[in-house]
């Protein structure tokens, strides 16, 4: 299997020549040649004859020609592909609607259809027998086109295995049943489910079909490839749309054009190709113990047909989101953002409901992204609950690193949202603390009676390359927390990315009574503030929020420049947040190791191009910080889980504070 853990799947509908298997075989072969890099290719139901042959299925000429067509396709199949075609087959005097699996020039197995529709426009029971497991386990179809069709495994109990890829096959109506055969196949280990279909187009049916495919892939923790018949089928009474879909664990990876989509009224052929992520599916099955329980309770046994060969898919057909926490720019964007805000607001409302009405919400407002989002959530919660926004006691606390830009933004934001606003200059308190500790910030020896003005002048003379002093930073963060905690109920503002990296002061900005941002990563914080500015505000408020979005990310704990500008930039120290959030998502959500993460990162289109060395170095920084700072995550405040990843020690992530990063760092060293 390729190192990235992908398998390439194509679902295809070729031009149909009704009742002409030889022509259909050649149409299929042409599509095989166009998709030579796919590991698996599946065509629609009865693709070699056409689905609409009707009583012609009783004609020997058609059935014998279908075998010849099967032989032609088999002769053209490459050794590294598994190809599945549909055709009618006569077995022991019964006619079955079947899917023939082909590899390396031979038919390796045949799966018959189990559930035959015989209602409304469908009449399959007029021609075919429904398979129920009582059929012979092998069939002998003779020879065709120099292809041996004898002693072929036959039945509803077949799975096809290529290393980690295990394929199950069902046909059309099978999927629409209360317990589809693919559910049983998945519980037996199949991670790719194929459906050969001839689902006709009706008003609204495509949406239901898509939902069905998505939900089945999600329910089975599998990939699902669906290939349907197209408009070149007979239109005597119904029309087929050529709808082809590939879904993985509830998400559509690829979808073809179809009749009725985008003004399309004719398609000779249609197809969709995607790289499915086998490692991701394996991880989800491994951690979803309820799914494992269901699999153990299944009593259905299957035969596995082994087809050893390296897989081709390398992920290049995979859309790897560079910002996996951020909603996609689509028609559902507004609903998704509204849902995120609503979860945060509902969580805060419940927590505050357990407090006396006289208790205010105290929040430190820095003019940065995190506190802005928390303040927006608090204000929206007050509006929804009918509380006055003056219940929010907002305070900005400028220190030695506070820039004029962020201080102005904090003041404007508190004023525009109608909160109570206060401002406390913490510099003198911090200086007194340094003197009490006997600390010499940046090597500066402090003497009793030193004024704040004199100390500030000393700070301005410290060379930029000497501005490293963790105590200097931590004292400011803890003084701010002391002031907030001494006032009452504190609403935290720190985000999940900072938790992952330990980018906070223990018992400083690390602590609060409740934190609505606890599972919101930095990239999503930035996106939500920008979204709120553009959709919920106008005028000066919008301008203020957009200005905050464009402000460089900084804790502003090291001295500002002489002209009052930001002197400390977080991403210059730890690396880009878009990379850290990418690493966080794939490591925590899918258990990916460094090699896997870097392979995925090489497929993502980030906002800036990164070299492999930059990716590796930033990942090393992430791993080191993530392991070293679990002790901070072990005691974070309560807060709501919003997305699929959370680092709460009471929720998604339980990790010993003393765990070592050696295994992960060694894997990185091997790459470097």
Write a structural description.
This protein has 21 helices and 22 strands. The protein has 672 residues and is α/β, with parallel strands linked by helices. The protein has 2 domains: 301 residues, Carbon-nitrogen hydrolase (Nitrilase/N-carbamoyl-D-aminoacid amidohydrolase), CATH 3.60.110.10; 339 residues, 3-Layer(aba) Sandwich (Rossmann fold), CATH 3.40.50.620. The chain has a 7-stranded mixed beta sheet, with helices on one face. The chain has a 6-stranded mixed beta sheet with strand order 5-4-3-2-1-16. The protein has a 3-stranded parallel beta sheet with strand order 18-19-20, with helices on both faces. Helix 1 runs parallel beside helix 2, helix 7 crosses helix 8 and helix 19 packs antiparallel against helix 21. The protein is elongated, with a radius of gyration of 31 Å. The mean pLDDT is 93.
Strand content is 15-25%
CATH topology of the largest domain: Rossmann fold
CATH-level-4 superfamily name of the largest domain: HUPs
- Low-pLDDT stretches are none
What topology, given as strand order, has the largest sheet? 15-14-13-12-11-10-17
Average predicted confidence as pLDDT: 93
In CATH's first tier, which class of the largest domain applies?
Alpha Beta
The major pleated sheet works out as: 7 strands, mixed
Task: Bin the helical content.
Answer: 25-40%
Helix/strand/pairing category: alpha/beta
Q: Span from first to last CA?
A: 22 Å
């Amino acid at each position: 299997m390729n190192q990235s853990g992908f398998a390439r799947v194509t679902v295809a509908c070729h031009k149909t020549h009704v009742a002409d298997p030889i022509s259909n075989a050649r149409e299929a072969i042409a599509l095989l040649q166009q998709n030579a890099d796919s590991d698996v290719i599946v065509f629609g139901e009865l693709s070699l004859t056409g689905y609409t042959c009707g009583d012609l299925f009783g004609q020997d000429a058609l059935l014998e020609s279908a075998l010849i067509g099967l032989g032609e396709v088999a002769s053209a199949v490459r050794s590294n592909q598994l190809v599945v075609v549909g055709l009618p087959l006569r077995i022991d005097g019964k006619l079955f609607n079947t899917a023939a699996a082909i590899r390396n020039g031979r038919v390796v197995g045949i799966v018959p259809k189990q559930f035959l529709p015989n209602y409304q426009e469908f009449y399959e029971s007029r021609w075919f027998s429904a398979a129920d497991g009582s059929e012979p386990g092998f069939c002998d179809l003779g020879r065709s086109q120099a292809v041996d069709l004898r002693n072929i495994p036959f039945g509803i109990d077949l799975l096809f295995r290529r290393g980690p890829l295990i394929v199950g096959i069902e046909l059309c109506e099978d999927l629409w049943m209360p317990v589809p055969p693919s559910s049983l196949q998945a519980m037996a280990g199949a991670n790719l489910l194929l459906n050969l279909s001839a689902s006709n187009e009706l008003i609204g049916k495509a949406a239901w079909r898509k939902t069905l495919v998505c939900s089945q892939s999600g329910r089975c923790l599998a990939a699902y490839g669906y290939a349907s018949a197209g408009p070149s089928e007979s239109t005597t009474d119904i029309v087929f749309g050529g709808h082809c879909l590939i879904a993985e664990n509830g998400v559509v990876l690829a979808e073809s054009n179809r009749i009725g989509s985008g003004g399309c009224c004719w398609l000779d052929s249609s197809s969709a190709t995607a790289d499915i992520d086998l490692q991701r599916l394996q991880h989800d099955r491994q951690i979803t113990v309820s799914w494992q329980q269901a699999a153990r309770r299944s009593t259905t046994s299957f035969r596995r047909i082994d087809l050893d060969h390296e897989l081709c898919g390398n992920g290049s057909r995979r859309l790897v989101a560079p910002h996996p926490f951020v909603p996609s720019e689509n028609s559902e964007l507004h609903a998704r953002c509204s849902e995120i805000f609503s979860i945060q607001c509902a969580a805060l409302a419940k927590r505050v409901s357990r407090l006396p009405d006289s208790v205010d919400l105290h929040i430190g407002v820095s003019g940065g992204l995190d506190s802005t989002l928390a303040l927006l959530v608090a204000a929206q919660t007050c509006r929804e609950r009918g509380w006055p926004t003056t219940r929010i006691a907002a305070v900005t606390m400028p220190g030695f690193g506070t820039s004029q830009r962020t201080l102005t933004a904090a003041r404007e934001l508190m004023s525009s949202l109608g909160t109570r606003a206060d401002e406390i200059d913490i510099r003198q308190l911090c200086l007194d603390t340094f003197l009490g500790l006997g600390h010499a910030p940046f090597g500066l020896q402090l003497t009793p009676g030193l004024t704040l003005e004199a100390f500030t002048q000393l700070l301005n003379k410290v060379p930029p390359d000497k501005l490293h002093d963790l105590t200097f930073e931590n004292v400011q963060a803890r003084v701010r927390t002391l002031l907030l905690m001494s006032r009452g109920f504190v609403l935290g503002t720190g985000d999940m990315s900072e938790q992952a990296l330990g980018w906070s002061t223990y018992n400083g900005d690390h602590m609060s009574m409740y934190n609505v941002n606890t599972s919101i990563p930095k990239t999503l914080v930035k996106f939500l503030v920008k979204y709120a500015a553009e959709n919920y505000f106008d005028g000066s408020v919008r301008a203020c929020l957009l200005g905050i979005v464009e402000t460089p990310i900084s804790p502003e704990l090291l001295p500002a420049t002489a002209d009052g500008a930001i002197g400390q930039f977080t991403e210059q120290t730890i690396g880009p947040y878009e990379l850290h959030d990418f690493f966080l998502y794939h490591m925590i959500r899918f258990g990916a190791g460094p090699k896997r993460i870097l392979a995925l990162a090489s497929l993502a289109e980030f906002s800036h191009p990164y070299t492999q060395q930059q990716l590796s170095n930033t990942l090393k920084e992430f791993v080191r910080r993530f392991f070293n700072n679990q002790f901070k995550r072990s005691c974070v405040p309560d807060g709501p889980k919003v997305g699929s990843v959370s680092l709460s020690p009471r929720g998604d992530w339980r990790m010993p504070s003393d765990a070592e990063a050696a295994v992960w760092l060694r894997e990185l060293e091997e790459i470097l």
